[in-house]
Amino acid sequence: MLKDRLDTFDEFKSINSQYDIQKLYSRGDFVTRVGGLSSSWRKGSGDVALWKYYQRIFDMDVDENTGDAKLTVTGWTAEDAHNIATALVHDAIVNLNYQDRQQDAETITAAELECDRLRKSLSEDDIAIAAWRAQSGALDPKIDYASLLDEASQLNTKRIELKGQFEAISRNAPNSPSAISLQSQMAVINGGVQDSLNSAKTLFPSASTYEGLTIKRETDAKLLEAAGAALQQARINAAQNHYYVEMIGSPSNPKSPAGPYSLKWVSIVFIVSMILYAVLG
């Protein structure tokens, strides 16, 4: 990942804006400097060609077992190589931290948006249930329906009891004031029974609407709970699943050059070739 990032054209432009690669790497020998042999008669180099050259001035070896990475930068002076290596390490750390923050933001933001959406949906469910209750005058149709039937049953039991008393008094004392009173009570109770039954009949059809509202609210509440757990897990993962770069050692700044040896090897190859030609000839 780090090597891929450092190889990009964007990273090349960043390094080139800080250190003029064309200028720094034109000071080498005619073989390894920017443009190679053609630099002797052609000045300057296109961005793409310079980018390809930039990719050859550094190398990164990563130990798959330990995760340790070694960055090697080639320069015509120790100072140039040290400065470019420092800039590459800095950019690698900055880019990795940026990727971590971006990934965290995308994951956590998506989870937060889902939680907000479900909270809004749950609030709308509560408003819909409150509106249904205000319109129907009932709190819960199941409870109210059962309560009305129970009320009608109790009133009917009372009516039967009064009817028995009324019939007994009517047989023994037909014109008794008690019989007239019982008759009035039965009429009131009959009206109460009928009112309870009528209310229950009216309430029953709307129970399906209320049930649909409550099921939706229960579903949204469970989804919100799950979304909250997912948000918490996203925050935990954001803290755990980061890529980290820790500098084990600062870029070295040697006092003497380790190269280049292009002309040296060209001379060696030439001399060996001449010796072989003389011997074999």
TrEMBL record:
**Which GO cellular component terms are attached?**
plasma membrane
Q: Which UniProt keywords apply?
A: Membrane, Transmembrane, Transmembrane helix
What's an example of a GO molecular-function annotation for this chain? protein tyrosine kinase activity
| Ranges that cross the membrane | 261-280
What is this protein's record name? Capsule biosynthesis protein
**InterPro entries reported for this sequence:** Bact_polysacc_biosynth/exp (IPR050445)
Record has Lipoprotein as a keyword: no
